[in-house]
Amino acid sequence: MPAEDPMGIRVPDGELRAWIERIADELCLTVNGQFDHLVRVEVNDDSLEKLQMLVNFVLDHARRAAEARQEADRLVRENLSLARQVGTYRELGHYRLEEIIGSGGMGEVWRGRHRMLARPAAVKLIRREALGIHNPDRTISRFQREARATAKLRSPHTIAVYDFGVHENDFYYVMELLEGVDLHTLIQEDGVQPPERVAYILEQACHSLEEAHRAGLVHRDIKPGNLHLCQYGIDYDFVKVLDFGLVKSFQDSTEPHLTEDGSFAGTPAFLAPESILGKRPVDGRADLYALGHTAYLMLAGRQCFESSTPFGAAMKQVNEMPVPLSAHPGVKIPEALEKLVMSCLEKDPDRRPPSAGDLARELRHSKLAEAWTEDRQLAWWERWWLRHGGRKPESDDSNVADELLNP
Questions:
Q1: Which stretches of 32-119 are assigned E, i.e. beta strand?
Q2: 49 Cβ partners below 8 Å, 6+ apart?
Q3: pTM tops 0.90, yes or no
Q4: Are 174 and 162 in contact (CB under 8 A)?
Q5: Between residues 253 and 331, which one has the greater pLDDT?
Q6: Helices (DSSP H) in 232-309: which residue ranges?
Q7: Whole-angstrom distance, CA of residue 212 vs CA of residue 247
Q8: What are the φ and ψ backbone dihedral angles of 264, each rounded to 5 degrees?
Q9: Where are the alpha helices (DSSP H) in 219-334?
């Protein structure tokens, strides 16, 4: 039976190697033919340029033939492995996997559907190979921590986890399937956002974070890619906070946020200074710092601190003060919103809003979000769907791969 790889390409079992080998053989035949032609060429001054061209041709195609054979070996190994996994995973617990919708460093995200309820879902697969060889238990713990922590949260603005488990040493968990766009993509494609929309988004993100913080959890990786806008039932511009994979309790948060290999846990462009230095306990105000950076990017169209390296970005978080939003040419922003965003970016956590709930109350008090009306939301989403193929989500099937896969 032909095997279907996760990208939807049907490859007959046992034929992939033969297919690429044929390409390599044809290249070799071409090379040999040119060698035969080469030895028949009479060497004289007029033929030197032609000889040079033939030599270059032969060497180039010989290299390509060797590379083709190496690629055959690699693709055969990968294709057979994927084919076995796809066949195994087509039925995973109560869910049938339908198509791959995202992939990254930790594994894959599939569109799935509950076999009995017909409920769509996103199924995240964490492969054995992604666990690493140095400390796989740590990676396993991270996966379990993400699933359990997210499953405990009930805010409608936190992505819902339906199930998780282990299948043949690979880990998986099942979450709601979202339709829409993350803020990273939104900023890339749509640019600077209206202040009233930014306020509207921040209020909703605060709802998710406040619940997590009250439970003693810090998200630790708030960034545009982990804030998702979607059509949710009859609501537009509904915010979902994604990827609690780096979540940590307040009681276990005094060490610098480094991974096993010494890199930063989280995204340096959005890390709070106390998260980098590890000189004081990290609490929910670190998430507000990252949320402030996200708001800054939406309002100004640029990062607070730009650097070509993660370490450089982290050091700027510690040592440099951000330029006020209103100082950027062309940025027009209500004073109340600028004050709130800049307060989130204070180096000293004690100078930031005390909690996500306090920040949300200040935003509501400003009444800025009220100007982002339902009519404006609907008009924006209609334009968005038109630009992306004219497709609107159906009431029972929302789908977009989330940014949960890059560690």
A1: 91-92, 95-104, 107-114
A2: none
A3: no
A4: yes
A5: 331
A6: 273-277, 285-300
A7: 9
A8: -75, 135
A9: 273-277, 285-300, 310-319
221 is catalytic: yes
**What are the structure tokens assigned to 143, written together?**
């996966």
165: DSSP letter = E
Give the relative orientation of helices 285-300 and 335-344 as an angle to the nearest 10 degrees: 130
- How far is the C-alpha of 349 from the C-alpha of 249, rounded, in Å? 17
User: pLDDT band at 205, cuts 50/70/90?
Assistant: very high
DSSP state of 307: -
8 A C-beta contact, residue 175 and residue 160: yes
Pairing of strands 10-11, 3-4: antiparallel
- Tell me the average pLDDT across 292-299: 97
What is the Cα–Cα distance from 86 to 3, expressed in whole angstroms?
8
For residue range 57-105, list pLDDT tens digits in order: 556 656 666 666 665 555 445 544 444 454 555 777 788 888 888 877 6
Please, what sign has the CA dihedral across residues 379, 380, 385, 390? Answer: positive
Buried b (16+ CB within 10 A) or exposed e, 24-33: beebbebbee
Q: CA 91, CA 41: separation in Å to the nearest integer? A: 63
Question: Which residue bears the tokens 């560690």?
Answer: 407
Q: Report which residue type is found at 10.
A: R
Q: Is 14 helix (H, G, I), strand (E, B) or coil?
A: coil
Exposure on the CB side of residue 232, measured as CA atoms within 13 A: 16
Q: Which residue type sits at 207?
A: H
Q: Which segments of 79-150 are extended strands (E)? A: 91-92, 95-104, 107-114, 120-126
Region at 109 (left for phi over 0; alpha for psi -120 to 50; beta for the rest): beta
Matching residue, tokens 């769907």: 385
- Measured CA to CA, the distance from residue 218 to residue 234 in angstroms comes to 30
Query: Long-range contact list for 314-323, CB < 8 A, 24+ apart?
Result: 314/264, 314/268, 314/271, 314/276, 317/268, 317/271, 317/272, 317/273, 317/276, 318/273, 318/276, 318/277, 318/347, 321/347, 322/296
The CA distance from 391 to 135, in Å, is: 44
CA distances from 111 to 101, 106, 249, 400, 407 (A): 6, 17, 31, 9, 21
Contact 89/125 with Cβ under 8 angstroms? Answer: yes
Per DSSP bridges, beta strands 248-249 and 120-126 are: unpaired
Which listed residue (221, 243, 283, 287) is catalytic? 221
